[in-house]
């Protein structure tokens, strides 16, 4: 894994929730910079020399991540001046609520405002840093900043995933226009958008240019990994585990984006664009969350010699086809991903030249996320060009143009709940035969309640569509209780 040059200088905080938000307040007010506390050391400010220009940045979002960025920039300003040849100065900070107290000191000379247009339209600002979250308002801010010729650094995976084709189109137009200008086109950097502090974006953009990525497998949502770890190791129920995640701030008040798998799907879409050169509508990627998992599933997983993780997976299933899913999946205990515990993130990249490479670390929180933003800010201030932030589209300079396919093959774990009666095993066997599903094994704990029992079928390698058809039909049987749960089995020639 590539280590950031700043990582050793940071005391990484415990995994904290990403809470930066933004909303306009009216009438617009602008506050002067508050008085610095007496303990603040001005000796850490970047030295002003004849060789030192100024890079002016504006930050949109004064929450968890925005505060972390300001704290790091302030405490290490001399280093950043040395690295970039210019003093990095936070000129403006746009926040949702001017009256809210904050746990960081606003830099000297920084104007705090509740109007993001003050940041976007300031002619002195070189780079806009967007860390407010959301999609619509954030999209408007990022697009307006780029059109105004400003470089953009963002941590907003939802916005990038939702508007990726539009971003690519705009950046292409700006690059074309810059050919007749003395000023280079603006850049877009988004290292913090996927897996917070793990440098997976820069690795995917720069370390596989002579390689061919075959598969990406990621644990890329810290909230759900924390919950599943507790369900596995502590024997907690889903509700108990969710409460624990909420108490620690890992889960939002409305945890749907996390537990439904949608947060992971947005990140996977971005990684697929970098790895395979394709832009896929998020709705086309099969997405199942963890809400239907029970303690029984972890008991059965243990019987099989593994555990359950929420995985985001994309694989080249042929030279011209890419398949993907977000879903709970069975993972054997000997797999590196089985050991990723708590709120930690991990991404395994399998490629033709390098084989398997795994990146792991903190996927969210103030300082991990801010650290990635800082790296992008420094690269931008240093003048590093990034003319193709999403890599070349599939088929450009490569005869293997890839296309997305929604169906894929895997071994599957299928858990059925039922009211006990004769002939159930025979019915399931007949339905599996009808839909072309080979049964690999059948697992069942001792029955405690014949009116509400469960058993598990594991299958041979088969198409997802066949399993879905089997589930639809088995749920129509009079002995079936509720919805039937199924998930892929990772490895062992699966997927």
Automatic annotation (TrEMBL):
Keyword list (alphabetical) reads: Amino-acid biosynthesis, Methionine biosynthesis, NADP, Oxidoreductase, Signal, Threonine biosynthesis
> The organism sits in which domain of life?
Eukaryota
- Tell me yes or no: is Oxidoreductase among this UniProt entry's keywords: yes
Protein EC: 1.1.1.3
Q: Name one Pfam family in it.
A: Homoserine_dh
Matching entries from InterPro entries are given as: Asp/hSer_DH_NAD-bd, HDH_cat, HDH_CS, NAD(P)-bd_dom_sf
**Locate the Homoserine dehydrogenase catalytic domain: which residues?**
199-378
Aspartate/homoserine dehydrogenase NAD-binding domain mapped to chain residues: 61-169
Metabolic or biological pathway: Amino-acid biosynthesis; L-threonine biosynthesis; L-threonine from L-aspartate: step 3/5; Amino-acid biosynthesis; L-methionine biosynthesis via de novo pathway; L-homoserine from L-aspartate: step 3/3
Please list the GO biological process terms of this entry.
methionine biosynthetic process; threonine biosynthetic process
Keyword Transport carried by entry: no
Please give the SUPFAM superfamilies that the UniProt record associates with this protein: Glyceraldehyde-3-phosphate dehydrogenase-like, C-terminal domain (SSF55347), NAD(P)-binding Rossmann-fold domains (SSF51735)
Return the PROSITE patterns for the record: HOMOSER_DHGENASE
One GO MF term attached to the UniProt entry: homoserine dehydrogenase activity
> Catalyses which reaction?
L-homoserine + NADP(+) = L-aspartate 4-semialdehyde + NADPH + H(+)
- What general EC class does the enzyme of this chain belong to? oxidoreductase
The positions making up the signal sequence are: 1-21
For this protein, the record's NCBIfam families field holds: PRK06349.1
Family membership noted in the UniProt record = Belongs to the homoserine dehydrogenase family.
> What protein is this chain from?
Homoserine dehydrogenase
Source organism of this protein record: Triparma columacea
